[in-house]
Fold:
Amino acid sequence: WDELPSVDESMARLREWGEANPDADVIFGWGFDPIYFGRTCTREDLDLVSDTRPVALAHASLHIVSINTPALALLGLLDNPPDTPSVPRGADGLPTGELRGPEAAYPAIGRLGLLPFLFPTNEDAFLAVGRLAVRAGVTTMTDLGSSYRPELLAQYAEYTGREDWPVRLVPAFMSDGRPAGELSRVADEAAAANTDMLRLGRLKIVVDGSIQGFTARLRAGEYHNGAPNGLWYKTPEHIREVLAQALAEGRQVHLHTNGDQASELVLDILEELVAARPGATPDITLQHAQMMDEGLLGRAAALGLNVNLFANHIFYWGEAHA
Structure:
C-alpha cells in the first residue's frame, strides 16, 4: 500500500476497501500514525467509512485502536463507557473512538475478530520468524508481549519442539494487573515445561504508552502540541509489588518505559527496593527508554540494570514529538 498523507485520505482508502468487500464483517486498517497529521482519528471520521459496519483502525504503535460508532455500540461502549482515560470522551460525553492501551484496545480487537491478523500465531508465522532470525545471525529471540493463554503456550511447545525449529525462544508474560504472587505462580507453572529451545518464566510490565500516540509519560508534563501527559498503564503500587516479588525470587522482568517519567518511576521504585535488600541484584531490563538522559542512565547503571534502547525510534520519528 502507498502511504497516505492525511486522515481524510486514510478514510477514503478504508471506504474503498469496504465497498470492494461488502461481505466483510469488519473494515480494518493498520499503520495509522497521528503524529504526522496534527490530529488523531475520531469515531466521526470512521463513521464516514461506514455507519453500519464496525470499522477499526490500529495505530502504528499498536498501543491505540480507533473505532467507529457501530463498533462502539457492538462492544457496549457507546451508551455506558467506562470512566477511564483509556476510553476518552468528547464534548458530547460520548467516547471519541480511541481505545488507549492494551487493557482497552486488545479486548476490543479480540471481540472484533482481529487479533489473529495483528498478532498471528499460526505455524507458518512462527517458522517464518525463526528463519528470519537465523538469516540475521540470531540464535535466541524473545517474545516480550506474550500472554498466559493455554493455547499460545501449547503452540510454543509444539513449534519449538519441531526438529526444524532453528532458534531458542524466550517469552515474557505481560502483567495483566493480577497480584504479584499470582503472576509468579503462573510463570512458574509455565516454566515447568521448559526445554532447551523454550525458556518460560519471565515477566513484562508495560508502564506507559506510546510517544507518537501521546500516551507515554513525560517529565515535561505535556507534549509539544499541548496534548496532556500520557497514561500509566499500571499503577505505581502494582509495579512496586511485582518488582518486590521478582527481586525476592531472582526473576527476570522487562519493563516497557517509553517516556522519561516512566523510566524515572521504575528507577525510584527499584532504588527503594534494593536499599531494603542489601546485596540484591535485580535482573531487570528497561525496554525502549529512548528519552532517558545521562542522569537516568547513571542511576540505571548504579542499580546494575539493563537498558535496551529503542534506537530505531530516532530513525523513524526523530524529534518529531519533542
